[in-house]
Amino acid sequence: MPWNATSRGEVFVIDDDARTREALSNGLQENGYDVISFADGAALLSYARTRTPACVFIEVDAADRSGLEVLKKLRSENCLAPIFVTSANGGIPLAVDAIRSGAFDFIVKPVRISEVVDRLEEASGAYSERTSPDNVSRQSLYIPGCAPLTAREREVLARLVIGETNKEIARYLGLSARTVEGYRAGIMRKVGARTAAELLRRVFGQSRHQERHP
């Protein structure tokens, strides 16, 4: 879609799923954004060197993680736009990889445009650089503004942020997967996170704050 003077900005999209591309294109255009779809990562990277998008949507799935390489390349080239990873795979490990690689958020398909627009608005006002994963183990897992986590909740959260699944955490801590799911739900309530990606973003963001203010 050609750029116009009243546009709220360009949104770059890479997604092999025609339904997702159509949903993003129609929904975001209705909300004032110009949407540009790219056939592959190379085309997007080339265009991003000449223009700064309002945000970027990159598809990643369990079988083909090439989208994460595009994400990392955008970050290495100092792309300042928030980047969203979309995937039909809602697993915690993939969400962790996406956030660690520099994604602002991780959206599980099928995408809901009202939710996407809300997250895009949040991103435009609150975007910040992700922390290095090397620093996660050194942070206290204290998140200002939320109710204190119990010792067990901190243990569960520490395993979540290194990408373990509920079953893996359950085996490590000697608990049932259902019990771990209960702890995870409690952590998200206390933190005020609606999604696993939002929870990870809060944790990684706090780690960055501790780096700057030891």
Outline the structure in words.
This protein has 214 residues and is an alpha/beta fold. The radius of gyration is 18 Å and the shape is elongated. Strands 2-1-3-4-5 form a 5-stranded parallel sheet, sandwiched between helices. It is built from 9 helices and 5 strands. It folds into 2 domains: 10-126, 3-Layer(aba) Sandwich (Rossmann fold); 133-212, Winged helix-like DNA-binding domain superfamily/Winged helix DNA-binding domain (Arc Repressor Mutant, subunit A, Orthogonal Bundle).
Order of secondary-structure elements: EHEHEHEHEHHHHH
How many domains in all? Answer: 2
Number of helices: 9
CATH architecture grouping of the largest domain: 3-Layer(aba) Sandwich
Strand content: 5-15%
Strands across the major sheet, in which order?
Answer: 2-1-3-4-5
Rg: 18 Å
> Poorly predicted ranges (pLDDT <50, ≥5 residues)?
1-5, 127-140, 206-214
Q: How is the biggest beta sheet arranged?
A: 5 strands, parallel
Number of strands: 5
Mean pLDDT: 80
**CATH-assigned homologous superfamily of the largest domain:** Response regulator
InterPro entries: CheY-like_superfamily, Sig_transdc_resp-reg_C-effctor, Sig_transdc_resp-reg_receiver, Tscrpt_reg_LuxR_C, WH-like_DNA-bd_sf
GO molecular function, one term: DNA binding
Keywords: DNA-binding, Transcription, Transcription regulation
Pfam family, one: Response_reg
